[in-house]
Amino acid sequence: MVRVSHQRFERLVAQALDDLPEWVRARMENVEVLVADVPPQDEPNLLGRYEGIPLTRRGPGYFGVLPDRITLYRSTLQGVSSDELHLKRQIHHTVAHEVAHFFGISDERLLEIDRY
Q1: Is the pLDDT of residue 36 over 80?
Q2: What is the DSSP string of 47-87?
Q3: What is the total count of domains within the chain?
Q4: Is 0.90 topped by the overall pTM?
């Protein structure tokens, strides 16, 4: 397990978002990325979660809705990381995974393409 300050963790998350391809960042409208200290009690091993309406399900009537959310769980990500470099990789992977859900890519499809 590695521990970093809240500020350092948030910088690592911001870097992971900045490292996404430009075409991905350009499409990320009406979505916010949050950091929570711990995951929900009924999912203690959860690294991240996407909540919202994926781009593939948004239609012409999609307007005036609250932003989608991508939440990263700091305690879990730190708990599975052996050092800061490993934590950085875990955050990058989790951000990419949750952004894939924002784009409408399911867990099953991520498994099929070996990106889970």
Answers
A1: yes
A2: -EEEES--GGG--TT--SPPPEEEEEEHHHHHHT-SSHHHH
A3: 1
A4: yes
